[in-house]
Design a protein that fits this description.
By secondary structure, the protein is of the alpha/beta class. It has 10 helices and 11 strands. It is globular, with a radius of gyration of 19 Å. The two termini are 29 Å apart.
């Protein structure tokens, strides 16, 4: 979804051009920059190998959009690659995690959820998207531990992604799913699901009726950022060219419109500041995941 949005927005803003889903290249006379937005947030050797290398010292080269999973998957051992295997360019936006059940579920609040988990941590089956150790898993484990439940005893399952998770929720195969706000909006509006809470510091503009976790007495706040990363070994000039192009896109009214439409919180962080943030987050999240028994 991020791939489609970035490519579509970039073409409309006339900043970038490229294929419909996965690639965007800046039109001349600006430096060429290919942006590959993978559907999976998991950094992998395949992702690194498919990043287009710079064609020359003057070209910007290529990059990939990924998420907090770049850090959590390395920490939990899901993937051997981490942020030091790529080059941080910029943070584009962040969003938050929501916990949703079917509309007819007896679980009506986070308090109800925790009461069930305290009685039996295996009594609630929860889908966490496509990978254990993902941001939804991280968030759910934090909620459980804060509520007095051992996160290592939770019944968690994974599917191919958010769409499969929601399908299995609506089909009655699981009790709850944790995922991004924009994945739940249409199902909440149709009356198919009930959203128990959101991990943000404040309520979502798109879901103003959904209380935050903190409002319900759970001191948990977690954001899932999206960032642009370049291949390893790019030059300072190439990194600067990529940063300039991303910064120009992020300042466009078209990008602001897309963020508002999808309830993405636009937080642009560039260059060395983003690198320092990623480094500090890697250490902080590593400590938390170890404490949760997930690493």
């Amino acid at each position: 979804r991020t791939a489609r949005t970035c490519s579509s927005m970039a073409r409309r803003s006339r900043l970038l051009s490229g294929s419909e889903v996965t690639k965007a290249a800046v039109r001349r006379p600006t430096p060429r920059f290919s942006l590959v937005a993978h559907s999976s947030p998991v950094a992998s050797p395949t992702m690194i190998s498919t990043l287009p290398p710079p064609r020359s010292k003057a070209s910007a080269g290529g990059g990939s959009i990924t998420t907090l999973a770049l850090l959590t998957n390395a920490i939990t051992g899901v993937n051997p690659l981490t942020w030091t295997d790529v080059t941080p360019i910029a943070q584009l936006f962040t969003d938050y995690v929501v916990h949703a059940v079917r509309a007819d579920s007896p679980i009506r609040s986070v308090k109800d959820l925790l009461e069930r988990l305290k009685a039996d941590p295996q009594s609630v089956s929860v889908s966490l998207g496509s990978a254990r150790g993902s941001t939804p898993h991280f968030n759910y484990a934090l909620v459980a531990k804060t509520g007095g439940v051992d996160p290592r005893r939770l019944k968690v399952v994974t599917f191919g992604g958010a769409a499969e998770s929601v399908t299995n929720l609506l089909g009655g195969h699981i009790d709850m799913t944790a995922g991004s706000v924009d994945n739940m909006i249409p199902h909440l509006r149709s009356g198919a699901v009930r959203v128990l809470g959101i991990s943000g510091a404040q309520r979502s503009v798109s879901l103003p009726e959904v209380p935050t976790l903190k409002e319900q007495g759970i001191d948990v706040e977690l954001a899932n950022w999206r960032g642009v990363f370049a291949p390893p070994g790019v030059s300072d000039a190439q990194r600067a060219a990529m940063s300039a192009l991303v910064e120009k896109m992020a300042a466009s009214p078209q990008w602001k419109e897309e963020c508002e439409k999808r309830d993405w919180i636009q937080i642009t962080m560039m260059g060395d500041a983003y690198k320092a943030y990623i480094e500090s987050e890697f250490a902080r999240i590593g400590d938390i995941l170890k404490d949760l028994g997930l690493a």
